[in-house]
Design brief:
By secondary structure, chain A is of the alpha/beta class. Chain A has helices at 16-26, 34-46, 77-80, 102-113, 146-149, 191-213, 218-231; strands spanning 51-54, 67-73, 83-88, 92-97, 114-119, 132-144, 153-166, 171-184. Chain A is built from seven helices and eight strands. The longest helix of chain A has 23 residues, at 191-213. Chain B is elongated and about 75 Å long. Chain B is 27% helix and 35% strand. The chains are: A alpha/beta, B alpha/beta.
Chain lengths: 232, 270
């Protein structure tokens, strides 16, 4: 571009203002992609990145002895749209989107654990085709980055609460479940990838813990005794 | 119990490092002997062939010395029971990922060992780690995975899992623990860019230390078949006079290939 600009041909030395104007003409036109590249570079240098991640929806199905009862699942709007948002000082804004993964997570979990599973659209009312209705909710989410914990890991903690209703809509009881997931920073290319993996691991841990814990919860034991006794 | 202990000490250049044929500094330069190879009918005198071969060998040795640092690797094996693989038997290599810990085996190390076991004329049938963990969910998740071989029979008693392992024809579980750490680092380097050009000046060196242990569990008997440990250490250097020249010791790669070779010989002795 500079080469193609016409040479200066002045009889007298050009004034400073004129020189500046000529120089402006000689500067190549700004490319449209230059600003985003500069901003990305600036963000990288300043280091206030943060991350926005969504948990993937691929979950395995548990390989366990099935409970010989069909179960219903109620997912409310609060769970389906659940996002954890947090601003960290000098580390930007962080967001973990968990809601969109809940339907497939619970579908796979209950398909593996029960002989039958069905989503119900309301908690109240009668559901004669299932033995009970499970109503999960996320009570709290926490996460930490390697900078915060002075470790090599991104970590995520999930606190679920499960409510069990009978098939006529009556509440039988509730219990809590805490899950944990981590991802080593060396295995991932950046904040987002590592945080996503830690959140995914926490969801898988919640599923694994649920399969182990379910039949040991007193509320569930009473419900199973009643339903299976009635079935026998 | 048949207990045998063998130890090997190897000072080696890892096999998968930049070879003289593929490395960037090994680009073949035009020499005054090159015209000889263009005519297929021309038979090169033995002396010339020998001289050319020596040049290439020297260049290869120099390139290797310039690009890679030396690695010292030690492999130890403890055998508890006899092992053998038949036709469709499979093996899985798993990394220990217990709950909060500061020492987790690198994912690419697990993949490296599995790939090396799978490769070659005597390669084993290796199931990919994530595929195995998903297919046996939740039994090998960090919360539930057996911590020692005494826990294995309890888990395998679960009928759905036992059926799945039968389908997979899984014979051995190989658990890998350990990691590679940077244990020492010295020197400094300064780089500058000016309108007339740029360059670096200084000297950096660091020492990496790998320490891994593989426990081989027999899935049929629930017994520990043995253990293999692989340790490797090496120092990497970057001298810089205008252009930095990295001389990297591939410590983890060396620990991986040593461990995989020993595992292959342990599981399927021929």
């Amino acid at each position: 571009m500079t080469k193609s600009s016409p040479p200066l041909q002045c009889a007298h030395p050009p004034s400073r203002v004129f020189q500046r104007d000529r120089l402006r003409q000689a500067v190549p036109a700004r490319r449209p992609g230059a600003l985003p590249v500069f901003l990305a570079f600036f963000a990288l240098v300043v280091g206030c990145a943060g991350a926005k991640v969504a948990v993937p929806i691929q979950f395995p199905t548990p390989l366990v002895e099935k409970v010989p009862l069909p179960i219903g699942l109620y997912l409310d709007e609060a769970l389906l749209s659940y996002k954890h948002e947090e601003s960290l000082e000098q580390r930007g804004d962080w967001e973990i989107e968990l809601g969109s993964a809940q339907p497939s997570m619970f579908a796979n979990l209950l398909t593996g654990m029960f002989i039958g599973y069905r989503r119900v659209q309301q908690l109240e009312g009668s559901h004669p085709d299932v033995a009970g209705v499970l109503f999960p909710s996320i009570e709290e989410v926490q996460f930490s980055t390697p900078e915060q914990s002075r470790s090599d890991y991104y970590e995520v903690w999930l606190h679920y609460r499960f409510k069990l209703h009978d098939n006529r809509g009556a509440a039988l009881g509730a219990w809590d479940l805490t899950a944990y997931g981590k991802a080593h920073k060396q295995n991932h290319g950046g904040d987002a990838s590592a945080l996503q993996q830690a959140a995914m691991s926490a969801c898988r841990d919640a599923m694994a813990f649920f399969t182990q814990q379910f039949t040991t919860v007193p509320v569930v034991q009473a419900w199973l005794a009643k339903e299976l006794g009635a079935a026998a | 119990m048949n207990r045998r202990r063998t130890a090997m000490r190897i000072t080696q250049k890892p096999p998968n490092e930049a070879s003289p044929q593929t490395g960037p500094s090994a680009v073949r330069k035009q020499t005054n002997l090159d015209f000889l190879s263009t005519d297929p009918k021309f038979k090169r005198p033995k002396a010339l062939v020998r001289a050319s071969g020596h040049c290439r060998t020297l260049a290869a040795v120099l390139a290797c010395a310039l690009l890679t640092g030396c690695v010292t690797a030690t492999v130890q094996e403890i055998r508890e029971t006899d092992t053998a693989m038949t036709g469709g038997d499979t093996v899985v290599v798993l990394g220990r990922r217990s709950q909060p810990t500061t020492d987790e085996t690198e994912l690419d190390f697990i993949t490296c060992v599995a790939d090396n076991l799978d490769r070659g004329a005597q390669g084993l049938n290796v199931i990919e780690e994530q595929q195995f963990i998903d297919a046996t969910f939740p039994w090998f998740e960090p919360r539930i995975a057996p911590l020692n071989n005494a826990d294995l029979p309890e888990i395998i008693k679960q009928l759905p899992l036992a059926r799945r392992l039968d389908q997979m024809q899984l014979k051995y579980l190989v658990w890998i623990e350990g990691s590679t750490q940077r244990i020492d680092q010295t020197g400094s380097m300064t780089c500058a860019v000016t309108p007339g050009g740029g360059g670096c000046f200084g000297f950096l060196s660091w020492e990496n230390d790998s320490s891994y242990e593989a426990s081989i569990w027999d899935v049929e008997t629930g017994q520990n078949a043995g253990k293999i440990s692989s340790e490797a250490s090496g120092t990497s250097y970057i001298p810089a006079v205008i252009v930095p020249i990295p001389i990297i010791a591939r410590v983890r790669s060396s620990a991986c290939s040593s461990l995989a070779n020993q595992l292959k010989a342990f599981i399927s002795p021929s």
